[in-house]
Amino acid sequence: MELSQFEKLVDEAITSLPQNIRNAMKNVAILVEQEASGGQLRMTGTRRGSVLLGLYQGVPETSWGKGFGNHLPDKITIFKNAIEMFAKTEKDTKELAKMVVWHEVAHHFGIGEKEVRKLEKKWIGG
């Protein structure tokens, strides 16, 4: 899939989030990259041979305090090649991109990895 087409899927995934979630997303940039860099893999502790689908970098909203401001935006990166590696069809790519966007946005709101995984199991019926 062309990068521009994948970016449209990510935009659709963002648009599919509930309106109240989209309205609450503050100071966050969502980017698409072909693949995670070596630095991103090391930073997350992703082991050789493992795959990183998305990455949240920033300060979760739950950590914001009085006077918290004037900081760079949080950054969510969605990794195209990793998602395509697991998706067999364009529909699968769209659904997985949607799930990865949701997962990383949950981190933006301070939901930890363990809780996000529980919510994902409920979402996909696992």
Overview of the structural elements:
By secondary structure, the chain is an alpha+beta fold. The model has no long low-confidence stretch (mean pLDDT 86). It has a single domain, classed as Zincin-like. The protein has helices at residues 3-16, 19-24, 38-44, 80-86, 90-108, 113-124; strands at 28-33, 54-57, 74-79. A three-stranded mixed sheet has the order 1-3-2. The chain is built from six helices and three strands; from the N terminus they run H-H-E-H-E-E-H-H-H. Helices cover 52% and strands 13% of the residues. The two termini are 28 Å apart.
Descriptive tags:
single chain; alpha+beta; Zincin-like; three-stranded mixed sheet; 6 helices; 3 strands
Radius of gyration: 15 Å
* Estimated helix fraction: 40-55%
Tally of domains: 1
Second CATH tier, the architecture:
2-Layer Sandwich
CATH class: Alpha Beta
Taking pLDDT < 50 over at least 5 consecutive residues as the criterion, the unreliable ranges are none
Percent strand: 5-15%
Order of helices and strands: HHEHEEHHH
Query: Count of helices?
Result: 6
DSSP, total strands: 3
The main pleated sheet reads as: 3 strands, mixed
Which sequence of strands runs across the widest sheet?
A: 1-3-2
